[in-house]
């Protein structure tokens, strides 16, 4: 058995994969429909949409196999993503890459494999649509063309996933994307016993910007604030536009005591932006800060709700409003 080489663009490929926020998500009919169709059209027992993560092969959709992932080093698809062309193995026992693979020498006793690379919009091979059989078989030109067509349909669905988790105006994660990615990050902090905090931002007087200068200028205010967040926080922090003029930031490995320097640095960046702009208004904001407490916050939604309440309370106090 030969372990597949690591792609030369691996870091960018993994970044593109993780940006979809699709790993470890629940089954979806739009992908299951395609694997069922592939299994029926090719008359194979197993059809899978795989995504190759850092150390594992994860199945977004799988029919005919009772598993959700396998180690990357034994996956056929880790070889398939090294090429932009189909990878077809007519008899795995006669292929030096796979003859000693435990999936060939043991359950499920793979003999035939055909994998079509699934590419991201920017051209990275994220995984495959693959077919598996326990008997050897041929795979002619018509079969190859059909598998490519089905692979293109999977790519279209992945594009839909990306658009469903990205805010079109700011290019940050939208609420769905933020909750997904921050939820994964929170799970990691839980397992490692690391601290985490959430910042919940709301632009002050945003309505007056829209009313006085128009919605186009309001959109510029939002994109400028998003750029300030993205440019002044760590690459490991999760940033999202949660809706309207609200933004969220999930800070990994950051206790409440460590948040204040982060906020001070961000405030200096906003002040500098206001001083050097050619606008008739400045950007102002309110922010709620909450540290993760395992006893109180079971899910990322609990953290966000608490930070939102703190932000809203601060905003009302600054306006001098009564609760």
Extended strand count: 10
Strand order of the largest sheet: 3-2-1-6-5-4
Structural class: alpha+beta
Query: Oligomeric form of this entry?
Result: single chain
Give the SSE string. Answer: HHEEEHEHEEHHEHHEEHEH
Under CATH, the topology of the largest domain can be stated as: Beta-Lactamase
Strand content: 15-25%
Uncertain segments: none
- Whole-number total of structural domains: 2
Describe the structure.
- The structure is a single chain.
- The protein has 323 residues and is α+β, with helices and mostly antiparallel strands.
- The chain folds into two domains: 10-165, Beta-Lactamase (2-Layer Sandwich), CATH 3.30.450.40; 175-319, Reverse transcriptase/Diguanylate cyclase domain (Alpha-Beta Plaits, 2-Layer Sandwich), CATH 3.30.70.
- It is 44% helix and 20% strand.
- The protein has helices at residues 10-18, 29-42, 77-80, 102-105, 141-165, 175-192, 206-213, 215-232, 256-276, 300-319; strands spanning 46-52, 56-63, 69-71, 87-89, 112-119, 125-133, 196-203, 238-243, 246-252, 285-291.
- The protein has a six-stranded antiparallel sheet with strand order 3-2-1-6-5-4.
- Strand 5 (112-119) and strand 6 form a beta hairpin.
């Amino acid at each position: 058995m030969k372990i597949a080489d690591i792609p030369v663009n691996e870091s960018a490929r993994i970044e593109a994969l993780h940006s979809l926020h699709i790993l470890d998500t629940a089954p979806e009919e739009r992908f299951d429909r395609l694997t069922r169709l592939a299994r029926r059209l090719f008359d194979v027992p197993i059809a899978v949409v795989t995504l190759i993560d850092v150390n594992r092969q994860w199945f977004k959709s799988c029919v005919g196999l009772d598993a959700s992932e396998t180690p990357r080093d034994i996956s056929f698809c880790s070889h398939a993503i090294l090429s932009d062309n189909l990878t077809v193995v007519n008899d795995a026992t006669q292929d030096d890459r796979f003859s000693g693979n435990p999936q060939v020498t043991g359950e499920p006793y793979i003999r035939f494999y055909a994998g079509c690379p699934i590419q991201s919009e920017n051209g990275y091979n994220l995984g495959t649509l693959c077919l598996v059989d326990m008997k050897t078989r041929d795979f002619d030109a018509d079969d190859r063309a059909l598998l490519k067509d089905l692979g293109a349909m999977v790519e279209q669905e992945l594009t839909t996933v990306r658009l469903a988790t990205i805010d079109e105006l700011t290019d940050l994660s939208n609420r769905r994307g933020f909750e997904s990615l921050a939820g994964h990050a929170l799970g990691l902090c839980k397992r490692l016993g690391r601290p985490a905090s959430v910042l919940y931002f709301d632009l002050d007087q945003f309505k007056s910007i829209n009313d006085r200068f128009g919605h186009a200028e309001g959109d510029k205010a939002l994109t400028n604030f998003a750029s300030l967040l993205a440019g002044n926080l760590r690459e490991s922090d999760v940033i999202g536009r949660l809706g309207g003029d609200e933004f969220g930031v999930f800070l990994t490995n950051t206790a409440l005591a460590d948040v204040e320097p982060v906020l001070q640095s961000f405030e200096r960046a906003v002040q500098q932006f206001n001083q050097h702009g050619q606008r008739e208004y400045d950007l102002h904001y309110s922010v709620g800060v909450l540290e993760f407490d395992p006893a109180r916050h079971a899910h990322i939604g609990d953290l966000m709700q608490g930070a939102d309440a703190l932000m809203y309370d601060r905003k009302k106090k600054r306006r001098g409003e009564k609760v």
